[in-house]
């Protein structure tokens, strides 16, 4: 969580600076942002409240660094990313603690896997440098026509707080591998982990290649989206802000990648009334990330024959999740990022409790006293309702509030699953392979999993359709499409 403070009021607090042109600096910031631990609402550190001027300095530094960086042989760029991966891997526990403390995500279930995943991302993209290949086009014997994958230039990247280090690395590693330079705006609620990663990167990178600005979205983020020196925008966050970024990009016809919100369906067939599916639904709903995940399977379409029995099993398992201090190794589920989000999640629960036709099957409002009231802790909650078009079934809650909807006809289940303006992920649960694949193909989403509810892995192209976004990440194609330009060169071989 972030609050603004004058630097003088936070002198005893650890202060982290921004990375601009190879130097660690407060830039032109006259104020600081205090980062709080969502698990106990206590300050952890402060960072500069970066300004539009700081963005401008950073974009100029990235512009100056670009010609030399794009000429570094791709395999040498890849080698640098691999060395960064080695250092992150060796210090993964340090990073895991920072992530747990600033995001409120439990170290065991989320922060440590995120830290390990970050090293994996650098290693994966480091190995892809030789794949920045072009192709030849067969126009005939007297013509040589080929394509080159060229970097775009200065990339402006904006990241959210829910998996800040992994999502930040997903911009840094492929953008730099492809020969671009980068200005990254960290999320105000969770900037510390990505600054830690940037410190490691800077030990290996020439100055100006990577710049990291801390600050608020409407200030630093908007300035970055609108900066004329930025040649590509890559944004992960809410659909509303994604639209603003796209609007800013449209002013200058700058390509944009957007990874936005979701309201992903989980469709459970009657043959899947089993414990492993219940575990899978808990994983897909990302309860152990407080469901602060764009891929959360937050609409559970359960077949009528198994509806009550399945929900009873789910209630029993969800109630066993241990909620509390994110740094405690026993904890399964940590805290919601900040007070605003926490109130928003509580507001949805209150709405559900008042909704005619909805029944609370487990969970509810968070405890008002006891240890959990010291942080922004929400509890796993499920409302059952026959309708798919009420507020909790339509809007992205970004909290541990699941809705269950009964179905009997497969076509009807698919129709309801697609009845959303989002299209990021989907989950299908059945042992009938034909039915599973038919349903997976019919779901309007960028990524459908059958009989599992896992997170992304490097190598598969990840991204949304509809208002969940544009472009793909996590993969070779993602890097090529998002961070390179395909230039065609055609030579007339007949001319002396
Ligand atoms: P979340 O709900 O995950 O916080 P947001 O879309 O609000 O998602 O924030 C994601 C990122 O977008 C953050 O780094 C935030 O500072 C930034 N941001 C917020 N508003 C703007 C804006 N108007 N222009 C550019 N970036 C913004």
List keywords for this structure.
single chain; 496 residues; alpha/beta; seven-stranded mixed beta sheet; six-stranded mixed beta sheet; 15 helices; 22 strands; 21% strand; globular; binds adenosine-5'-diphosphate
Explain the overall architecture:
By secondary structure, this protein is an alpha/beta fold. The protein has 15 helices and 22 strands. It has helices at residues 52-71, 74-90, 92-103, 107-126, 164-177, 192-204, 217-226, 239-252, 275-284, 307-318, 339-354, 391-394, 410-417, 433-442, 476-483, and strands spanning 2-5, 14-15, 18-20, 23-25, 32-37, 42-48, 136-137, 143-151, 154-158, 181-185, 210-213, 232-236, 256-259, 265-268, 299-303, 359-362, 381-384, 401-407, 425-429, 447-450, 469-470, 484-492. The strands form five sheets. The protein has a seven-stranded mixed sheet with strand order 16-17-18-15-14-19-20, with helices on both faces. Helix 4 (107-126) runs parallel beside helix 5 (164-177). It is globular. It starts with a strand and ends with a strand. The model has no long low-confidence stretch (mean pLDDT 97). The site of adenosine-5'-diphosphate has 19 residues, from helix 7 and helix 8.
